[in-house]
Amino acid sequence: MRFLISFWGLLALSGAHPAPAKVFHHFHVVGDDPGAWPAILAAAGFTPGAPGITVIRQGEAAPAEQWLPAVERGGVVILEGDSDLGRALGILPTSERVAVRSIRDARAPKLPIIWQKEVNLAVHTLPEEAKLFARERWRGAPVLAGIRRGEGAVLWVATPPGDLGYERYPYLIHALADLGVEPPLAARNLWAFFDSAYRMRADVEYLAERWRKAGFAALHVAAWQHFEPDPQRDEFLRALIAACHRRAILVYAWLELPHVSERFWEEHPQCREKTALGQDAHLDWRKLVNLADPSCAQAVRAGVRSLLERFDWDGANLAELYFESLEGAGNLARFTPFNSHVNGQFEKLHGLSMPAALREPGELRKLLDFRSQLVHRLQREWLEELAAARRQKSGFEIVLTQIDDRMDPSVRDALGVDSSGVLSLMDEFGFTFLAEDPATIWHLGPQRYPQMWEKYRALARRPERLAVDINIVERYQDVYPTKQQTGTELFQLVHLAAGTFPRVALYFEASILPQDAPFLAAAAARVRRLEKVGEKLVVESDRPVGVRWDGAAMVNGRLWPATDGKTLWLPAGPHVIERAGKHPPLRLTDFNGRLRTASVAGEGIEFSYESESRAMAVFDKKPSAISVDGEKADLTVGECAGGFSVFLPAGQHIVTARR
After folding, report:
1. C-alpha span between 602 and 357 (Å, rounded)
2. Do 200 and 122 sit in the same domain of this protein?
3. Quick one: 533 and 511 in the same domain?
4. 203 and 251 share one domain
5. pLDDT at residue 19 in the model
6. What parts of the chain have a pLDDT lower than 70?
7. What is the predicted pLDDT for the residue at 329?
8. pLDDT in the model for residue 1
9. What pLDDT score was predicted for residue 18?
10. 129 and 26 co-located in one domain
11. Are 218 and 314 contained in the same domain?
12. Cα 41 off chain centre by
């Protein structure tokens, strides 16, 4: 059958002859009911308007005599179901029917993609030139295909995409890209978590290049893998940090206290945390240490200090410093801390032991509040430790990651966390607060992130220092169409989170499927306005953003220096972009701080920025001199993959670089 041949041919040849990429800015949905298409396309950076991508929904008129010429001239049309245009292209319904509950996509043929509700539809045949992107899993009926025609293309879906936009076809944006549609926007402000245990044999240069293209500005590296000196591991980490720095990616030490390291656990059995059943607290992958014991805490402090001194970190992330588990006192085999030091403190304070408090319902509240107070005390102590490290290294950023207790308040008693309490320390210690959504709400849709933002914005005196962590993992709940977030669902998560929180982190980089990484930068970009007006492009955004633009450009009537030749890097605010006849003498091709202004200054450029950590700038040519805030700066300029890079100080500054 033709559609089966096309599918397996795509598996073998996909990517061998990609369609020429063309940037589209807008989309338009024909008819009164746009369905989920605005959410799907906005998550990849497209904005409402015309001309651009046209969506013709099932049941809407699609006369071939109108739309075929438009496609041949370069238009892109998305078709739902049977239509006059589809038939003219050779997408023909047959009398055969198929019940669709599971599909197979060419990008991930082994990935189970299961629809929550079965759909009965007509089997279609496709023309030979069609690219079959997805088919019904068992009988092979096509459900997603694309056809190039003239300068344009048509993407056909057998059914509407569903109410949410991701519950049937995860890879709609990928299919558009295969047809030559390039998203118009990019951001480079994502964070990602990294565990070298999954990547020790990987090429760090390849990884760093891939991460920067995905929009990563910082990598949080599992520090427990490097807690004790080890020649091979240390060499790998130094190479990783250097590769990231060459691509304007910051690297933070990701601490998971009270887990320290495998070796520390083995060599300090007296420091092992205990559960309520008196067992060693080896829970999941974490092996918890009793940080309330002064001698154990001192040993951990010495190790952390050594770790921070051995490598060129840009900051540290104090992550998940609280107790276990999400089941709380309902599962005593996982309930911590029940070491003798903590039990003694509780008994002195309340006149009964912690096990006794568990047995007395009227006393349990005292125990839960005591745990929460202990978490707060430990967080303060370790923030003080990291603040001491920051005093030794300018531009060293502190991040505190804590599981969210606002969307699911039961988390407070289960783990001992209190977001309002730790946020009260933000002014004193100047950290970025990274909220991690708990597993109990992973099944909720992307709309949870704007709700979460409103709750934390009300608590934080400095909301610009708030961030959110998205867990890209297999979920234990019944979720559709995939157990792990991928494709459109992932892009909507990132897009809505980035539209509210100033920073979005992804856990973790190794779980991001390869087919999704190229679209993360577009998903993280947000603008208020993106409009093509004649030959000009009007952009308005609340935060810095990258706009796809080939060649030199004028921005607001002035030659623009912040560009790599394919993307313009713009500050927040309104901008009018138009063609320029030549590039400036020196270009800022990449930057990981928040750009505020940029301009050509003689034979060089001037730009201003702000950054909580030290910032990295990449120039296309080696500057002969650099000044910061009007003073000549003695900065080391290093050669990197994209030109020449330099570290700049944290804070708000004005930089002048001369060719």
Report:
1. 73
2. no
3. no
4. yes
5. 65
6. 1-20
7. 96
8. 34
9. 55
10. yes
11. yes
12. 18
